[in-house]
Structure formats: C-alpha cells, structure tokens
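Dear colleague,

Following up on yesterday's call, I've attached the two folding results inline so they're easy to grep. Please treat them as preliminary; we haven't cross-checked anything against experimental data yet. The first protein's sequence and structure tokens come first.
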Amino acid sequence: MPLRNSLLKLCGIGFQPVAFRRKSQAGSLCHGVIQQAVKCLPTLLILMSIPMTHDAELTHKKDAESGFEVYTAKVGNTTARLVPEAGCNLFSIEFHGTELLKTPKSLKELPGFMYGNPVLYPMPNRVRDSQFTFGGQTYKFIPNNNGNFLHGLVHNVPWKVTKSVASEKDVVIVCELPFEPGSEHFKLFPHRHTVRLETRITDGATRFTYTVDNHQGDKPVPFGMAYHPWFLYQGKRESTFLTIPATHVFEADPALLPTGKRNDVAGTKFDARTAKSLGGFVIDDVFLGMKSDKPAVIDYRDAKLKISLPASDDFTHLVVYTPEQPWFCVENQTCSTDAHNLHARGLKTEAHLLIVEPGKSHTGFAEFKFEKY
C-alpha cells in the first residue's frame, strides 16, 4: 500500500473535481493529463503488477455463553482468536481457512491448559510432589497430576488488556497479569512483579513476546515460561513429520519427571534432528540443547503445510507430547520440567531456571510461522 500510494503521487494521480468557465480550459487540462499518463506509463505498469493488500482487522465482542471478551485478528490468510480472561489464551489459529489448534466446544471450557495455546508460568509442566524450595522458602501447590503440580498459575486467571491495535500489516494485543497481594496466584508465588505478553499476528505468523517485570519487587523472581500449543493433525499421522534439533533428552522416571540425567539423542529413538514421521513416534519427553537459529519444524506433508517454531535464545528446552490422539504438542520452554527442584539440586545448566533480580526485567519470545508449499 505505501509503495502503491507513492507511485500514484509520483504520477500526479488523484485530482479533485474542478469547475471550468470555458471549454478551452477543460480541453487544455485534458491534454495535459493525457501527456502525463503517457509519461508515467512504465510506472503505471509497475503499479498494476503490485498485488492489492488489505489492512489488518481487529474486532472484539463478548461471547454470550461464557461472558468472555473474544479478540479476533485477521491479517491476510491468518485469523487468530484470543481470550484475555481465560489465561490470555490464543485459542484458535486459522491459516488459509484451516484450524490449526484444538479448540473447545464452549469457551466456558477454555480456562486451563487443555485447548489452544496455554501460557505456562512460572513453572512449566510438572513440579515434583507439588512443591519446591528457593531462597530458603518452600512453595506448595495443590496437586493436579498424580501428586504433582502441572502447568503453572496463569492459564486459568483473567489477564488485563493494556493495548490492542491493528495496523496495515499486523495486529498487536498486549495483556498483563500482576502478582500482587489479594490474588490466589500471588498467595502461591508471593513475588510482587508483573508478567506481560504481547501477541502479534501477521499474515503467516503469531509471535508471543513475554516480559517478566520485577521493578516493583523486593526479591528475585525465579521462573520458567512456556507455550503449550495443541496442534491438530492435517492429514494422516504417518504423513506428519517433526524435526527436533535438540542435542539431548532427559531421562524420565515413571511419573514423567526428569531425573536430572541427560542423554545424547544420537542413535536413540528420540533422534529427530532430521525430519521424523510421527507414525509410531509416541513420546512425552523433555529435550534440551535447543538453539534460536535451529527451530523445531512440523511438516504436514498431506496438507503441504509447514509450521516452524522459532524462539529467542532463552528458550533452551522443548517438550514434545505425541499420544495416540488427533492432536499433539510441541512446547517451547525456557527451562526444564521441574526446573525449580533441579535448580535446588545444583543442576543449574539442566534446569535453566531464569531469575530476575529486583529492579530488573527479562524479555523473550516464541513464534509460530506457517508456510504453504
């Protein structure tokens, strides 16, 4: 659009109606316009070759059944829907008219971590025995996974929208969640700070940029951040291929918690450094050694669609969950499962627990990029 408009201005196109007293005046102007059009013919041909683009669209309305406000972003061939009041969950992504995520039948079911793309913070995935110790303080949680605690504190609470705007090329929605006295999540994790999440939708991508802001706090914030997309199969499972460019995978105990021992993926069933079919590849494991220049990639060969999952350098871990279901999960994480407990055991590299000191903040991102081929 900016290029198209610039070319129009260059050619002098966009005249206002003018009233003439004499026919000679009108004839003279018409002659000038024809000369200008001939002069600008090459530019006009370039203009005609530029595809029309459409501004991004952002709407929001209340869902009648749940009462939640639903934000809908449309940018080219990408449509995404987000509910701030249900954990800031971008629960639906359509690309070229095809839904990519598992969505609930009713939005009343959305709070939690079973649909869409839940945000997992400050302890992604499982916490052993539903407790950990940090800085001499013990944190305890209500078990929700066979005696363990699963998926953090923010996926089922309302976030506040602080910005929502559509431009020509994208839609940006910023939400925040303060940890402050009076909230249940602060009671369980009593560190005064704020988590912000900017969701940016472009044509062919959704980017999630988080910030942990500890400028109001008086003690360090130990955290991990993760996104838990429930991807739907697009075609046959055996025709869906996954690339996991990780160097190691954690040994897991029967409760699917990492023991702390990491094994090289080379030569094992977990080796998916080159594209591996999900046919018969049933796992629920934690990979580590991810690099920002080598993202995980999903290749739906029946649908001729690829999804890559690039992320910032702090996303060093990846959880992959591929049960015998019509969906699967590939989860970028800044830390290991049970990171706080591994950190307390001295396994700091394995855990990769991030710690934001008072007066500081930390920012990172993860992204889903879609490509038809």
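Below is the second protein, in the same order (sequence, then structure):
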Amino acid sequence: MTEPSPLPRILLMDTAALFPGLQGTLAAHGYEVIHTDPVEVIGLFAVAPPGLVMLVGPPDGPAADVLAYVRQLREQDTFIPVIVFLKEADVALRVRSLRAGADECLDVSIVDEELIAKIDALLRIKGIQDRMHLSRQQLQRMSTNDALTGLLNRRHFEGCVRVELRRAKRYHDPLSLLLLDLDGFRQVNEGHGEDVGSEVLRTIANMITEAVRDVDLAARLFADTFGLLLPNTHLSGALSVAERVRKNVASNTFEVLGTSISMTVSVGIAFFPNKDVKADDGLFRLAQEALLQARLQGPGRIGLFQGRHYVYQDVD
C-alpha cells in the first residue's frame, strides 16, 4: 500500500495578527504552515516554493510585494495560488486584491469547513497546472532531444547549425562543426545486443558532453554518429576538442552488462570562415567529406577540411 502524498506547505503572512486561529486550524488538518514576516517571505520562495500562499490584510506594502512576485512566477509558468483574508466587508478592497493577483478573497470569519474546502479546490487547480507544465516541458524536450542520450536530435541540431552559421557570417566570428562516427558500432549491436549498444551510446554521449563548454551544442545525428557545434572556435580549438574526445573514447574500456568493449571514434571537422561554405548546409557537407576521408584512412582518425582534405596525425 502506497503512502499518501504529503500535503503542500502553506506560507502564511499575518503581520497584524488579524486571524490568530488560522495557523492552528491549518495544522489541525495536516498542513505544514510557515508563518513568516515580510522581510523573509520572498527568500522562502527561492529556498522551497510553497504550495499555497495566505496573506492576511489589505494588498498593500509587503503583501503587495508578495503578490507582485507571485505574478512574476506565473509569467514563468509557475502557478502558486494566493488567498487574501480581509476583516472589512469592502467590495472595492476585495476587487483590488483579486486584480493584484489573489485567487480567492475571504473574510477572516470564514468557518473552518469552507476554508479547507476552498484550499483543497485551489490545490487541485495547482495540481492540474503543474501537470500541464510538466507535460509541456516533456513535449518540448521530445521535440528537440534524442530520447536515448538526452543530446539534441538531428532536426534541432541542423537548425542550430544554420542559425549559428548565419550569425558567424554576419559578425565574422569563427565557427567549427565536428561529426563523430563510432567505428564498428554495428558489430557491437550485432554481437552483444542492442541493450549493450544503447549503454555504450549513452556513455559516449556523456563523454562528449564533458569534453565541451556549456555554450557548445552536442547532438546524436544518426544511430552511431554525433555532432558538435563549437561557436567562436577556430580550427585549433576544434582540433583540441576532437583529439580529447578521440583519446578518451580509445582509452576507455566500456563495461556493460558483464561485457568489456573497446571503441574508437572517427572525426570530421569543418570550420568557418571558409570560402567553400556558401549555402546554409555548406558546413555540414564539408564536415561529412572530412569524416569520409578520416574513415578511409582507418579507425580512430581525424579528418579536416581546409581548402582541401587533410587527415590529422597525432604527434604523440
């Protein structure tokens, strides 16, 4: 039998003590209540966002600041419901509270049963909003990322290459593209099974990610082919990255499901500025040609395109 989910935490601000019994009522119904003062309230959102906010009193001063902060969170797709409690039966004040961002405006004399029912209703709405937000994030990730490795997928990566190439042309910045192909990967799948092959791909994807900067883009383009886009990177920098990945893969023994596997990777490099890069797909085309030249020389080679084809030889 599964344990029931804990009730969301409620952040309560009642600086004038207009509703002294509120905290006890909430605690009696199982809610964890954080009673805070105006100085600490915004900081608590950053540490541990509450499930619901309760403000006792008019939407002025610190309460207005809290409502403004909650509105900012909603613009970022984070929904936290707010209840404002008022002592005065003032319609204009209630309207002002609602327009300031409150989701409910209640009288401090509200009976416990109605209060708990309204809290439950707001938390149900929050649950729906949270699930919708999570679904949107998952759909967004599915449209841009490879399901197996978590790297960018081919379609999204190719779009990024086009955008970065146009930017590089406009601002005369260097740009490098690496295509990395796993040598003999088909034999891994055929000889050891797809589960082993998938784990090898995930491990190599992690190695590639660790070898680059945060601004660089890594993708899985085909079954055993990866791409790296390095903005503001000259050929020397691209070579350094390619050599680092090549050596890391070659020196690693992949222990997967009781099987030891050794791998090598071939790399093709193209870069801008380059007079041969004319169309938006020019950088990809040259990198593919460089990768082909590398593979023709044997496994674990690095091919360059620099006006003509070269195969890089490691001096070590």
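For the second protein, one point worth flagging: The first strand starts at residue 10 and ends at 13.

Best wishes,
A.L.
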